Amino acid sequence: MYDLTALRNWLISELYQHTEVPLVPQNSADPRPPKPFNTYNFISPYVPQAAQPALIRHDKIIDDENWIEYKRWELPTVTISLNSYASGISDCWQKAMELKEWFAMKGYRSLKDEGIIVASIEGMEDRTLLLDETNYEYRVGFDVVLRVVSETSRLVETIEKVEVNENTYEE
Question: Using one digit for the tens of pLDDT, what is the confidence trace for 67-97?
Fold first, then answer.
């Protein structure tokens, strides 16, 4: 399986380098940094691909014994919701555009090197909240869908010799 924590940490680092704005979890009890800042939320961390996964068989020799390794290889999607927070709505739009720019173009090489494809970038939305009668929390956000490589494997010991009805069969 792909490593969600490694993907999250890598994305936080890459997006911070591009925007120079902190990226923190959306749903966290920790105090938020001063504005401007960005948030993320993995709203669908694993959506299986529509097609059947590839199953691959390899013969292996481990410690002079024969084994078979089965690998399951698939390309699930991961949906991440990103929001930008600032003191005013214009700054929110600008910060959100910087995030979107990274997924649309600037981060292409970094994503490719990690085996990640941007499957879609959803439209940007004003996600401002009215906190009380006169105070707003300005935020603008969008969702991005990434396609990642997920591989799992298992080793199976081969049967070298079988005895059936006093007959011995060997490989």
Answer: 888 999 999 999 999 999 999 999 999 999 9
Rounded to two decimals, what is the model's pTM?
0.85
Boundaries of domain holding 151? 4-170
End-to-end CA distance of the chain: 33
Instruction: For residue 88, give the H/E element and its range.
Output: none
> How far is Cα 50 from Cα 74, in angstroms, rounded to an integer?
10
The Cα–Cα gap between 39 and 41 comes to: 7
All residues at 6 or more sequence positions from 143 whose CB lies less than 8 Å from its CB, including other chains: 43, 79, 80, 81, 82, 121, 122
H or E element that contains 70:
strand 65-74
Overall domain count for the chain: 1
Contact present, 24 and 32 (Cβ < 8 Å): yes
C-alpha span between 106 and 110 (Å, rounded): 9
Which CATH number does the domain housing residue 11 bear? 3.30.2000
